Fold:
Amino acid sequence: MTGALDETHDPRRTSWVESAQGHSDFPVQNLPLGVFSADGQGRRIGVAIGDFILDLTQAAEFLDEEWRDELAHPVLNAWLARGPAAHTALRGRLSELLSDERYRGDLEMALIGQSEARMHLPCLVGDYTDFYVGIHHATNVGRQFRPDQPLLPNYKYVPIGYHGRASSVRASGEPVIRPSGQRKPPEADEPVYGQSRRLDYELELGMWIGRGNRLGEPIQVGEAGEHIAGYCLLNDWSARDLQAWEYQPLGPFLAKNFLTSVSPWVITADALLPFRVAQPPRPEGDPQPLPYLRDGNPAPGLGLTIEALISTERMRAESLPPHRLSHGNAAAAMYWSAAQILAHHSSNGCNLQPGDLIGTGTLSTAEDSGLGSLLEISRGGKRPLTLPTGEERSFLEDGDELILTARAEADGAVPIGFGECRGVVVGTA
Ligand code: CA
Structure:
């Protein structure tokens, strides 16, 4: 990371938007960017502040003339491409506009209630790649298939990933249509085609690429932070029965590409600066990363508490709150840092582009309370979970709503949140 703490992180700074004070996600220290629509008008870029969105199209005259073109687009790609200096400058200006009482009169009419707006995907996603850096997840899943050798020999050398599908990435709230496909029941000789019976979620973080790199010119690990414009929550919906049958030899395909949901707000790299932490040390005996993956940053980790919750149809009918499935620390789950992921992705010269989405992979911690998928929680379906209604779940049923959240806390900093990534499972459309 290149940025430094400044007055925008000052915990004493407050906003004239009263709901921002003590807001669990969007105090004036956060200022995430997103794309919204409201009042039957087209998509616009806005910034979340408390329970509101500041419409940057309506507030354009208060912003640097140089930024106005990109900020008037219906997606953030062009703005994210500008790189860290412009992003930090916009954050400074937005913080000033939203904290200084003198701007209230002019900007109050550019506020839209979040409850009146619809959020969209922040970027036109050209490419989506999903990694597998959650070592406890990789171990838990590997153990179900290979009890003697849960991690394959390459895991501690290579940040493992695969190219996902960009066309089915959607913003939070998109219904999850239960996919159909081939699955082979263990007792059957041949596969059948039909609806997935083992629909699952994966608790992940996503990274939005800012400035890209030229084809053939790898991003160095020490500079990777300058290419990450921001972060989101990512749910890599997964059909485990389709996956088990199709994954060899080329990896995930139709078990994953029917939908990927993301939280709509881009939590900027600057907003997360107070919450950077050291990665947990590599266990004794693990190899050191090869030189191109050696990250000299003393605090490359994300000090975030990430959480998954479920709400069934019956829970909602009985007015019960969502039930927490897991919670844990993202940094503790990640064997490879965000910078190492980017450096590896581009190490062969592959070009990343503004608005590309990179998933971390499922982030499970070492504890039972921090497992990031039902596949792990139910031990492959062998140990169903009992909900407060008495209902049991090994995998997701129609009507279940899955909710992901993330929260950053640190001494001397105002806590910020990511908002939510939600989806309700429905039968075939
Ligand atoms: Ca995944």
In short: The radius of gyration is 21 Å. Residues 130, 202, 204, 236, 359, 361-362 surround calcium ion (CB under 6 Å).
